[in-house]
Write a structure and sequence with these properties.
Structural class: alpha/beta
Strand content: 25-35%
Shape: globular
Low-confidence stretches: none
Number of domains: 1
Order of helices and strands: EEEHEEHEHHHEHEHEEE
Distance between the termini: 15 Å
Largest sheet: 7 strands, mixed
Radius of gyration: 17 Å
Number of strands: 11
Mean pLDDT: 89
CATH topology: Rossmann fold
Length: 230
């Protein structure tokens, strides 16, 4: 199966001279279409930095990040913004929903941002029904439970039919029952839409439920603990 993501010899350095911090060192791996991958590591290991680089929210000091054949590290700011909007969906721990928009409009927002792209209302309705929040479509975020807000965030991430969904501790603010529920939704989305998902988590049990685990320690893939576990 074709690789949808290739991370090649990525280095990320913050600061200069004696204040330099090597957040990532020579990180290399690839991801196939439809894989659900967990990125795990201790706090400060570099896993969220890695996710931000893959998502185009930050740029590597050295190396290549290739998504659908495009090296995003070489794109200009405007090109990168358009590419990110069309190819990457984000699910954050704090949901990051717009409080003044109802559920439907929050989900449709990334598509509406992409001017010239027709909003596929049927597809959005399908996602909302699939995730069990169709009846909440006119509600605002403050009228939803944590689980419902995270379902809305997942629906929004799927709305543009992206190449990748990047999830940064998506269950971090949820109770154990809702965590299991949201994890099930992520796995089902990966299967149903052949969606590729990279999820940062510190929860080993959640990681074990994924197709593959990439372990990061001190900014490097930690091969002593399995590194990449299939």
């Amino acid at each position: 199966m074709k690789d949808i993501l290739q991370v090649k010899q990525i280095h990320k350095i913050y600061g200069a001279k004696e204040n330099q911090v090597h957040a990532l060192r020579d990180v290399t791996f690839s991801v196939r279409q439809g894989e659900f991958i967990a990125i795990v590591g201790t706090s400060g290991s570099g896993k969220s930095t890695l996710l931000n680089l893959i998502g185009g929210l930050d740029t590597p000091t050295q190396g290549q990040i290739i998504i659908r054949g495009h090296n995003i590290a070489a794109l200009g700011r405007k090109e990168l913004t358009i590419f990110r909007r069309r190819n990457i969906g984000f699910v954050f721990q704090n949901y990051s929903l717009m409080p003044v928009l109802n559920v439907y409009d929050n989900v449709a927002l990334p598509v509406m941002f992409d001017r010239g792209k027709h909003v596929d209302h049927e597809y959005i309705c399908e996602i909302l029904k699939e995730l069990g929040i169709w009846d909440k479509r006119k509600r605002f975020p403050n009228e939803l439970s944590g689980g419902q807000q995270q379902r809305t965030a997942l629906a929004r991430a799927l709305a543009n039919k992206p190449a990748l969904i990047l999830a940064d501790e998506p269950t971090g603010n949820l109770d154990s029952a809702t965590t299991v529920e949201v994890m099930g939704l992520l796995k089902e989305s990966s299967r149903r839409y052949n969606q590729t998902i990279l999820m940062v988590t510190h929860n080993e049990a959640l990681a074990q439920a994924c197709d593959r685990i990439i372990r990061i320690e001190d900014g490097q893939i930690d091969y002593t603990k399995g590194g990449e576990t299939v």
